[in-house]
């Protein structure tokens, strides 16, 4: 990809006129990421065109003359954020095999897509349930598209009785080439009390996927129950090859399918299912799990924004993990060893589930996120408080393999035994109660393998100048959304600490720090720094003159820092810098424009420069 394309190069009228008149036999036209707002109607003259890519442009509509491109086989419209509709004569592109569309911006799709029977790839299909729009695409049009393969995203706006009949006629279960399916409801009607929910249930019931499907996503579904092909053990027979499942924003659901016996399921994500209280409704089925496999292939599990989720099984949440006192007590009279566990789970994210008290064991977890959960679920604290005879509890929860940890409870982090930290390389603190890094001093002193550290959403954090000087191997430091943090506090009397100790630091990010007015003087000791990102620091008045100390700096991003009005004189000494991004920088954006900007001479030696002014609300 030419470098100037990423820089927003303009495809102007003179260029388009020259193109259409000089290259009448053109087969491929790739304008992706150009600053294109319109296409000339003369594009219809390129009758030999096979491939047209307009991805990432600002085009708002395609000219009707596109319908004359009878030989067109590939049309790419990804990330066209201003594109609202497709031309009505798109049905004339009978040789079209690939049509990829901007999913977030399109508001209307004309009828006729079903005529394009050569289509092998259709990334997005938009249906309007409003009966008054007879010219809009209908679900039944999918019936003839039997060559579809890969992924398909179906979005349904509005609702009507007819949609349920059309869904059955779509014949998705016969399209064996489909591997990924996303069915999305109308976010505007996202209400569990919505009267049309019964229609949405019927629609989803009719859109039964093919047995070959590997990835299924359902989002913003207004129904109160799952389709018949997904209840109880139906998934195991109707969709046995599933490797990925995502249910998002289905607020009417009170139950979720039984996923545990899907032999090939690797990724499971459940978000914003407000009414679900338990993952499995019957604890007595656990006995059958001794013979049947329990999530045999699951590697990633995400539970987020599930405000009423209490546990995996009812009895478990009420008695098994309510206390830290008796971790060896099993299910009924059985021992703890019979409690089901995820045999291959490596990534576990539980976020925004304040009532969740129990989950199956996770002996192989490497990447763990525990944010805003019931404190009885915090297995870190459970491990530390267990009796000596229960020492194996630590490894049974995967702590011996833990590499990445994101946590909101600092006390739980501090109580983690040292032997559990031997492989931890990444730590993200989303701790709203943390006030000072001094509380973490002992933890940092024992964290010899930590190379990435983030403080994020630590709203009460005032200082990080105690403890992190122990992290001499730290390579990545991110500090964001810490509104009370003042990095300049005591900057003159700390003798450059803790920055002087962080000689290995290579990547540094300061994001949305209201009290950041100037960069701390101690940063001049970071001579190995390679990347510096300063984002949404509205009070940052500019870069210091000693910026030339960053002799190893290769990349710098200065985004939405409007008070930074100019670059220091020493900026031209950053000879290793090969990428600079200045976005929405106010006066600085104007000064860095090529070729006449006042600060352009300071940055003209940099191979790749992006300077953009964006409107910020």
Task: Kindly describe this structure.
- The chain is of the alpha/beta class and 617 residues long.
- Among the domains are: 1-107, Ribonuclease Inhibitor (Leucine-rich repeat, LRR (right-handed beta-alpha superhelix)), CATH 3.80.10; 530-617, no CATH class.
- The protein contains 12 helices and 23 strands.
- It has helices spanning 3-6, 13-22, 161-169, 197-206, 234-238, 314-320, 379-385, 393-396, 410-414, 441-445, 587-591, 600-603; strands at 28-30, 51-53, 74-77, 98-101, 121-122, 124-128, 150-157, 178-184, 215-219, 244-248, 267-271, 300-304, 347-353, 367-373, 404-407, 426-429, 452-456, 476-480, 507-511, 531-535, 555-559, 579-583, 608-612.
- The strands form 2 sheets. It has an 18-stranded parallel beta sheet, with no helix packed on it. It has a 5-stranded parallel beta sheet with strand order 1-2-3-4-5, with no helix packed on it.
- Strand 9, helix 5 and strand 10 form a beta-alpha-beta unit.
- Helix 3 (161-169) packs parallel to helix 4 (197-206).
- The radius of gyration is 28 Å and the shape is flat.
